[in-house]
Amino acid sequence: MNPNRRILLAEDDPQDRELTLKALSDAGMGSRVDVANDGADVLDYLHCRGRFAGRPRAIPALLILDLKMPKVDGLEVVRQIREDEVLRTLPIVVLSSSREERDLIACYRGGVNGYVVKSMEFTDHLRHVRLLGEFWGSVNEPPPESSRSTA
Fold it and tell me: Which pairs with CB-CB distance under 8 Å and at least 24 residues apart come from 18-24?
């Protein structure tokens, strides 16, 4: 993974967060993952405000987003990102326990790039997240910063 590429993980459940961080670490990306604890935290991170006020303004290579979060839910986070000229090209992959068709449809209509259902099997979850991190963190070429409007 390019050392300048960051992954933002948005997960409010401590166990799911730790499991996902382990899988990303196993894929060699553990040191490049930032964590948001809820939807409001994601927006603060992306806009460099609140506890993230001092972070560099770089946009992450990927947002791994849980849907059911407190304060601001995942769908609202997606909506706000896709309406923002600077953030709209940010790749978003939903990592959710929901298999509900309405959630899948709402996410894809909202503009997510992928939807992964959290596996109840420990080894499957690790494998899925590792593959996700490897693709989006190493293989995929994110949009260049210069393609994003600063208006």
Answer: 19/122, 19/125, 19/126, 19/129, 20/64, 20/95, 20/125, 20/129, 22/126, 23/125, 23/126, 23/127, 23/128, 23/129, 23/130, 23/133, 24/129, 24/130, 24/133, 24/137
What are the sequence ranges of the domains in the chain?
7-139
Give the CATH number of domain 7-139: 3.40.50.2300
How large is the average pLDDT for residues 80-97?
Answer: 94
135: enclosing H helix or E strand: none
CA-based nearest residue to 43, from 5, 2, 22, 73? 73
Q: Measuring CA to CA, which residue among 138, 66, 124 is closest to residue 95?
A: 66
- 112 or 32, greater pLDDT: 112
Per-residue pLDDT for 150 more than 50? no
Whether the model clears a pTM of 0.85, i.e. scores above it, the answer is yes
